[in-house]
Amino acid sequence: MNLLFVEDDDDKAEKISAQILIIDPLIRLTRARSFTSALHALVKRTSEIDGVILDMSMPNYDDSPDPPENFAGRDLLRQCKLRKITKPTFVVTMLDSFGGAGRQLNLEQLDSQLANEFSPAYLGIVYYSSAQESWKSQLATKIDIIRENKREAANS
Fold it and tell me: What angle do CA 123, 39, 35 make, to 5 degrees?
């Protein structure tokens, strides 16, 4: 199974990647570090990608000196929808709120918004915390859903 892993934080990416390989050592991860590199990978290699693990906050370009965009993950989902790229996708984030004053969303609000706009491809949110272990089982559950989607697509 091939997963696109969109994450700009190296420490978080390393820990999540290691856990994914514990879940299934045969998973092949392709990492994108920004909105632009993720969109490029999805457009150019869509047939090779079985699912997406998506960070919500990321820079627009690799090695950008600018701070990450709060809703870059949502913007990526919108670009995929416009291009009719529908890959099973879930968000892994260590933030519990997004946006600035006046347009801030908590994790539950963001999850609801993404589910309303991007279902059935959107699979939900995994809240990553290095101080807790629950994210590991949530990650395994989401990967199982992607695996099952791949099996169903192969059988149809």
Answer: 85
**What does the pLDDT average to over 130-153?**
95
**What pairs with residue 97 in β-bridges?**
106
- Longest CA–CA span in the chain (Å) reads 47
The residue ranges of every structural domain in the chain are: 2-155
Q: How many whole angstroms separate alpha carbon 98 and alpha carbon 56?
A: 9
CATH number of 2-155: 3.40.50.2300
The pair of structure tokens assigned to 117 is 């706009």
Query: Which of 94, 103, 97, 96 lies closest to 130 in space, CA to CA?
Result: 94
**C-alpha span between 54 and 67 (Å, rounded):** 17
Q: What is the pLDDT of residues 94-106, one digit of tens each?
A: 988 887 767 789 9
Residues pairing with 52 in the sheet: 4, 89
Asked whether 20 and 139 are in contact (CB, 8 A), the reply is yes
